[in-house]
Write a structure and sequence with these properties.
13 helices, 9 strands, 49% helix
Amino acid sequence: MMIYKVDECEKLRTFILKKIGEQIDISVQDADILHVDIDALSSYYNQLFVRHLKTELRRVDISPQALNSIAYRVEKNGESLLQISKEYKLGTFKVAKSYLEYVYNNQVQPSTVLSDPEIIKSVELRKDILKLLRDDPVCSYEVDIIKECLGREYENLLIKMLTERHMCFETESELRSRGKPKTPDILFQIPMGLARNEYDKMSPYLNTTSKTTEMEGCGKDYVVINWIDSKAMFADIITFDEHLEQLRAYNNRYGRGLVIYWHGCTEEIYSKLRDDMIIVRDSFPDHWIFPTGELADGNVPMFLS
């Protein structure tokens, strides 16, 4: 389980913000020191960096006058753009992008430089810009590609696990091909029963108002699940709040559903759920039942045989 208590999450947040302030990326060694999964730490670092970036963009002077000063220092004084970027805690990609747009009057974008580096005539400046574009741990094109691939990897893992249990479902791409709007990653064609865990019971709504069924001989309560959304990330309460509008849209169209944060989440999410329509997990749940009461354990249920 990767459910973090509030004080544990705050410890991670404080550690990461210190790293961001020092303009230092996190490492596997940091994860070992904190006794957390490196994927969870990296995901949380990315989220906090983006929030930091939004704050700095409002505070730091990155006006045309500031960019003009940067351009003068680079072109006339021969200063390194790489060194100048350290004065602005905006992320290296943002500094390089702003510089290119200003100097080349929006005619040259980062993607242009990556595909044709020699468009930058100065060898030293070219090296600096390429390094700034490629080394940003959060905002570079390479990072975006990695995030997209990671998201697909976990979606494929989810589909594999559901298929192995003979659950009946449609994927997001199948739903969109039929013109469905606001589609989760998985929509069950036959709603499934999901066993509640100890974290669900932190919510007074899940503890008292849910219509549950009980699997004979197990004493486990189940809630009906109509859809699943896969999130290849860590979620603190702010991240969850950012996703809430999307998840509520699924509620309105399809009923109760499950969101999986594969890199963990804070237990604060559970205590702040205002109803039982969104179930949160940090991994694929083990205990499912079909509407017939049969356990979804990999054996073909009677109604499909």
